[in-house]
Specification:
Helix content: 25-40%
Bound molecules: flavin mononucleotide
CATH topology: NADH Oxidase
Largest sheet: 3 strands, antiparallel
Mean pLDDT: 97
Strand content: 5-15%
CATH superfamily: NADH Oxidase
Strand order of the largest sheet: 1-2-3
Number of helices: 7
Low-confidence stretches: none
Oligomer: single chain
Length: 169
C-alpha cells in the first residue's frame, strides 16, 4: 500500500473480529518495529505479544474495556529507561524511542490491512502484574491488532496553520 494511503486510512478501531491475524503479517509488523530508529541506536524497547485468550482477558484488569481484549492479538510496548540515551539536561529518551517503534507497528499493521488503537489510559500497576513486568521495565502503550468490525470515524484535526509555525513562533 502506498505510504500516504496508509497514513490517510489508519484510524483507531474499537471493535474487532475474532478472525486470527496471519503469522506472516504479524512477523512483518514486528520487523517494522525492530528496524525503528532510536536515540544513539540504544533500542531501549520491548514488545510483549499476547495471543493467549486468558492473558488477553487478564489485561482488562488494567484497562476495563472488552473491545481491545476481543482482538486476536494485543501488543504492549515497554521502555527500559536504563538502556536509553540521556541528553545533557538529563532528559531520558526511552519513551520517545518506544513511541517511534510503536507507531511503526501501527502503520505497518495498517499497510497489512489490519486495525489498531493506541491505548495509554491503563492502570500501569495492574498491567505490570498481568504481564509479569520486571523492575526497570515501564509499560507505555498497548494496542489490539486484528481485523476491524466497524467503520472508521472521520478525521478530526486542527488546520495546518494552527500547528505549523514558519521561521519563528
Ligand atoms: C498516546 C495516545 C494514547 C491513546 N490512548 C487511548 C486510550 O487509552 N483509549 C482509546 O480508546 N484511545 C486512545 N488513543 C486513540 C486516540 O483517541 C485517537 O488516536 C485520536 O482520537 C484520533 O483518532 P484516530 O486515531 O482514529 O485518527 C490514544 C492515542 C494516542 C496517540
Amino acid at each position: 500500500m502506498d505510504f500516504y494511503h496508509v497514513l490517510e486510512t489508519r484510524r483507531s478501531i474499537r471493535k474487532y473480529k475474532s478472525t486470527p491475524v496471519e503469522p506472516d503479517k504479524l512477523e512483518r509488523i514486528l520487523e517494522a518495529v525492530r528496524i525503528a530508529p532510536s536515540a544513539a541506536n540504544r533500542q531501549p524497547c520491548h514488545f510483549i505479544v499476547v495471543t493467549d485468550e486468558a492473558v488477553r482477558r487478564s489485561l482488562t484488569r488494567a484497562y476495563s474495556r472488552d473491545w481491545f481484549a476481543a482482538a486476536p492479538v494485543v501488543i504492549c510496548a515497554c521502555a527500559e529507561p536504563d538502556e536509553a540515551w540521556v541528553r545533557m539536561d538529563k532528559k531520558n529518551y526511552a519513551d520517545v524511542d518506544v513511541t517511534i517503534a510503536f507507531e511503526h507497528l501501527v502503520l505497518a499493521a495498517a499497510a497489512e490491512g489490519l486495525a489498531t488503537c493506541w491505548i495509554a489510559a491503563f492502570d500501569p500497576a495492574e498491567l505490570r502484574k498481568a504481564l509479569g513486568l520486571p523492575d526497570g521495565i515501564e509499560p507505555l502503550a498497548m494496542t489490539p491488532v486484528g481485523y476491524p468490525d466497524e467503520a472508521p470515524r472521520a478525521f478530526v484535526r486542527k488546520p495546518l496553520a494552527e500547528i505549523v509555525h514558519r521561521e519563528r513562533w
